[in-house]
Design brief:
- The chain has one domain.
- Helices cover 64% and strands 3% of the residues.
- It has 18 helices and five strands.
- Helix 3 packs across helix 11 and helix 4 runs antiparallel to helix 5.
Length: 346
């Protein structure tokens, strides 16, 4: 069964109301931004250092510190993400500087990722404009018409082990080191400059802490934070009742409120993930800082009508593989064996 979704008619009918609500939370707060930066960056650096000290004694002392540091790196990525939208600070220069520095810590080129992510926001939920900054998703018909090798590649890409364990490291360590197709000169320079900065940072950290400890801690933190980050991104647009439409029927507001999840997380996880679970609000208005998302959600009755995706219900997303255009829902590969008659993923 489909999860209920926000009524498109209600979305249109309350448009003036939610626009007024959204406008109240778009303004960045220097105090909130600086406090979030301090309570995220300083603990991350301290935990990294403590993990290094723990590694001198035993790997088992370092492991819990690496796990905790990974949580703070996820939160740092949310700050980076806000800076790319120009929403973390009021100042464009402050967003660019902090965005570049947090991009260095998360191994992500600032201007290049900003361009890619902007394309994602402009095309999310549009079946005719897939392919930039999203999870590779085929329709049932596209999969059936694909070659054997393309099917194999798709199955491997959508395999949970590859998607959440191997892909994050490939993304942050390898793919982010190359300029994407379609990017301009600024995006290409962004990648090259970040690669040079990362090389210098790795050399300096290895000289201070030793090559082996640096690799153990850095790779451990990035593997864990990358896995969490990719999972959060996946659940944001791969859930029961999600919205996808062809371009002629695509609507930006529907794509935000019905095509982006309200991932209802416990308060601790909500803190570490920088409120990114309120993704429906973020897609509706990307210039709302993460520290205002929850308050915006709670202030508007329409937003609270969006059905939540809980930790438990989000696990069902692991079974989704294809988009069935006829039934307008995500399905699993078992759906193909049933001749398209199944209404749920396996």
């Amino acid at each position: 069964m489909h999860a209920p979704s926000a009524n498109p008619a209600a979305v249109g009918g309350n448009r003036s109301t939610w626009k007024q609500t959204v406008a109240q939370y778009r303004q960045p707060s220097l105090g909130r931004a600086m406090w979030q930066l301090l309570n995220t960056l300083l603990p991350y650096l301290l935990l990294w250092y403590l993990a290094w000290l723990g590694l001198k004694v035993s790997i088992w002392l370092a492991v819990p510190l690496i796990v905790l540091a990974a949580g703070f790196l996820v939160r740092l990525f949310i700050i980076f993400h806000d800076c790319t939208h120009g929403s973390f600070f009021r100042s464009k220069r402050a967003n660019d500087v902090v965005g570049w520095l947090t991009g260095l810590l998360t191994f992500t080129p600032y201007h290049c990722w900003r361009w890619q992510h902007g394309n994602h926001h402009a095309t999310s939920g549009d079946l005719d404009r897939r392919g930039t900054g999203d999870v590779w998703t085929l329709t049932v018909q596209e999969y059936l018409e694909a070659s054997r090798w393309k099917r194999l590649a798709y199955r491997l890409t959508r395999n949970p082990f590859i998607l959440f364990l191997i892909a994050p490291l490939l993304l942050f360590l390898v793919i982010n080191r190359f300029s994407p197709t379609g990017g301009g000169q600024r995006e290409r320079r962004s990648v090259h400059r970040m690669n040079l900065a990362l090389l210098l940072m790795a050399a300096a950290m290895s000289a201070v802490f030793g090559l082996k400890p640096y690799l153990i801690i850095q790779l451990g933190v990035m593997l864990l934070s990358g896995t969490v980050g990719v999972w959060l991104f996946y659940v944001q647009h791969q859930f029961s009742g999600v919205y996808w439409e062809r371009n002629e029927n695509w609507d930006y507001v529907d794509a935000a409120l019905r095509g982006s999840s309200y991932h209802q997380l416990p308060s601790v996880l909500r803190w570490f993930s920088g409120n990114i679970g309120f993704h429906h609000i973020h897609h509706l208005s990307p210039n709302i800082p993460n520290y205002n998302l929850q308050r915006c959600h709670e202030a508007e009755p329409l937003f609270r009508q969006v059905p939540p995706v809980t930790l438990l219900s989000s696990l069902r997303s692991l079974t989704f593989r294809l988009w069935d255009e006829q039934q307008k829902q995500l399905v699993g590969f078992r759906h193909l064996k049933s001749g398209g008659k199944s209404t749920a993923a396996p």
